[in-house]
Every structure is written in structure tokens, then in C-alpha cells.
Design brief:
heterodimer, A: Immunoglobulin-like, 2 domains, five-stranded mixed β-sheet, 2 helices, 9 strands, about 30% helix, B: mainly alpha, 7 helices
Chain lengths: ~200, ~160
């Protein structure tokens, strides 16, 4: 019995070492979180061919959707148009995070992404939309598109859901204070029931 | 190096398997009640093996749950976790899951395989095994969404309206 355990020990240790080693390999570039074009972003070596179908400045109307098709190649892995970049927060974004060969990627070839990103302008003005793409090797690229949004007097900014007065963190804290003790009490009662039933 | 990913996958898989076996056990117990109670029959042996798997699976899963929770709090600052709805949900229901698995391990250790003899006891044990494992699957999917932005369970979670709040 002891011999069997000793024989199995290297296998168990080996599995754990393998798990730790594989974990260290899946670290990306967590420090590269800054806006594209600044330090702390992925490196841009002008390697990726990143284009859009926008010809010059886009003329848009407040509240009326328009779509831009982005095309990229050379080992591209992820395309994003996030609210925090340039003036992207001036638009509601749909289909704005597309991974290679995942939902939203119109190009089935590996390392090439074609994606339609839809924008809803929230306010009149001239804005810059910034899109970003990166490869698995940590190389990135971004393109800016200028959009002029005309005012629509009938347009109202969509209300947020849930309502503004809803505080999710306070609700969560309340649930933490109630559900966890309640579950504990119910389980203790069930334990007593089970123990009594088995003695009968 | 992030420690949390090392500790979460193994026990989540085991607890998902115990949930599936828990469901099978309840069905077996209802359908083959007499055969299971007859010693040395194939059904009784199979039932015994499944029971052992669930018991040890729950013990290993419980230890993994503790490890996953501790490393989760080590890897990310508390405020970052609280600000994320997925993480809020995971923290809340991980604690409930831990309570469920403490109950299951305690009861099974105390009562032994007699837990499967009476309807009032095996239903509590079996259903909570399924609920606990199901909870782990949902929490695992949310971890996947938090890290990879997607999960195969995402449509179901969206349909149910999770995470909340």
C-alpha cells in the first residue's frame, strides 16, 4: 500500500508542477492598459494592416445609428472599440469587441478580422472614434476616424437601466448580510432533520 | 503570478461531476430501490462507487473552494472585486456554496452511506449535491466571462438575468 502511494507521489507532484508552469504561460501584457498611442499600450510596429471602410469624415445625425466596417490581418487576435478611448464615450457601441474567428468576425481566415461596429451618436459635435487591434504577440495598432454629428432636436439620451438611484453595491452588501447567515441556518436545520431521521 | 487560476479549475470540474452523479444517484435510488439494497448485486456495487465518488469529490471540492477563495482575495484588491458585478455574485454565492459543501461533507461523514436509505435524507443530500455543483458551474462560467469575456453559459446567464445585483 505504502509503495503504491510512493509510486503515485511523483505523478501528483508532476501534475501540480505542470499546472503551475502552464499558469505562468498564460499571462498576457497586464500592464499595457493605457489608451492606444500612449506609453503603456501595446507596441505599434506598423506591422498590422488595419483599415476601415470610412472615407474621410463621417457625417452622422444624433441618435441615428451608423456602421463602420474594420478590416485587419497579419495575425490579428482581438479588435476593440472601447468607451474610454478618444471620444468613443460619445457613442453607444454595438459589436465593439471581436476576437478572431469568434462571434462578430466576418472573416473566417485565421489571424484576420473583419467586423461591423455600430455606433449611436449621443450628442452633436465633432468627435474622434478610435479602434484598436492586437496580435497574440503583443503588437497593436489603432486607427482614428473623425465623425461630425448633427443635432436632432427630438433626440433624448437613452435612460440607463437600472435606474440611477439603484445602488448595486449596497444591495450586494445587504444580500451578503442576509443570504449567507440564512443559508447557514437553513442548512443547520436540515442537518438536524437528517440526523434525527437516520436515528429513527 | 496569479494563483487563483491554478486552484479553481480542478475542484470546479470535480464538483460539476459530483452534481451529475448526485442527479444520477437520485434517479437510481428511485428506479432501482430494491436492487440497490440487495448486497453484492451489480446495481448495489455501482451505487456504492458513485456514493464514494460524491463523498470524496465533495471533500476535495470543499478544500478547492477554500483555496480558490483565499487565492482570489490574494490576487485582486477587494475594491476591484466589489466593483465588478460578476465578482460580487461570485463572492456572495461562493460562501453559500461553501456552506452547502460543509453540510454535505459533515452529514455524509456522520451518517455514512445510510444517508441513501430514507427518502427524507437522500433527497436532501442528493438535491443539495446537485445545487452545490450547479452553483459551482455558474460561478466558474462567470470567472470565464471575467477573464475571457465569454462563456458557453453566457446565453443562459443572460436569460436568467445573472449576475445580480
Amino acid at each position: 500500500m505504502k509503495r503504491k502511494i510512493l509510486m503515485g507521489l511523483p505523478i501528483v507532484i508532476g501534475v501540480f508542477v505542470l499546472m503551475l508552469a502552464s499558469n505562468s504561460l498564460v499571462i498576457a501584457s497586464p500592464g499595457s492598459t493605457s489608451e492606444c498611442g500612449t506609453s503603456g499600450c501595446h507596441d505599434d510596429f506598423n506591422v498590422i494592416d488595419f483599415t476601415s471602410n470610412a472615407a474621410g469624415t463621417i457625417e452622422a445625425i444624433q441618435g441615428v445609428n451608423f456602421t463602420i466596417q474594420y478590416t485587419t490581418d497579419t495575425g490579428s487576435d482581438l479588435l476593440k472599440v472601447l468607451g474610454g478611448w478618444a471620444n468613443n464615450s460619445q457613442f453607444l457601441l454595438y459589436g465593439n469587441e471581436v476576437a478572431d474567428n469568434e462571434a462578430g468576425d466576418l472573416n473566417s481566415a485565421d489571424g484576420e478580422i473583419t467586423a461591423d461596429v455600430t455606433f449611436t451618436p449621443l450628442a452633436p459635435g465633432t468627435f474622434t472614434i478610435r479602434a484598436w487591434v492586437a496580435t497574440t504577440g503583443g503588437i497593436g495598432d489603432s486607427i482614428d476616424i473623425t465623425v461630425t454629428v448633427a443635432e436632432d432636436t427630438d433626440f433624448t439620451t437613452p435612460t440607463t437601466t437600472p435606474p440611477d438611484d439603484f445602488d448595486p453595491i449596497a444591495t450586494w452588501e445587504f444580500l451578503m448580510m442576509t443570504i449567507n447567515p440564512l443559508a447557514g441556518v437553513i442548512l443547520i436545520i436540515l442537518a438536524v432533520v437528517v440526523l434525527r431521521k437516520t436515528k429513527e | 503570478m496569479a494563483l487563483h487560476p491554478v486552484f479553481v479549475h480542478f475542484h470546479t470540474g470535480i464538483l460539476a461531476a459530483t452534481a451529475a452523479l448526485g442527479l444520477i444517484m437520485i434517479i437510481l435510488r428511485i428506479v432501482y430501490q430494491d436492487a440497490i439494497r440487495t448486497p453484492n448485486t451489480r446495481a448495489a456495487k455501482l451505487f456504492h462507487e458513485f456514493d464514494i465518488f460524491i463523498y470524496w469529490g465533495n471533500i476535495i471540492g470543499l478544500l478547492g473552494l477554500f483555496a480558490g477563495m483565499v487565492t482570489g482575495f490574494m490576487d485582486w484588491p477587494m475594491q476591484a472585486l466589489v466593483d465588478d458585478p460578476y465578482m460580487r455574485f461570485k463572492i456572495l454565492w461562493s460562501i453559500v456554496g461553501t456552506e452547502i459543501f460543509i453540510f454535505l461533507v459533515f452529514i455524509r461523514t456522520k451518517v455514512g452511506d445510510k444517508i441513501w436509505t430514507k427518502t427524507s435524507t437522500y433527497l436532501i443530500y442528493g438535491i443539495l449535491t446537485v445545487v452545490g455543483g450547479g452553483l459551482m458551474i455558474i460561478l466558474g462560467a462567470m470567472g470565464g466571462i471575467a477573464v475571457y469575456d465569454t462563456s458557453i453559459l453566457e446565453p443562459i446567464l443572460d436569460w436568467i438575468g445573472l449576475p445580480w445585483p
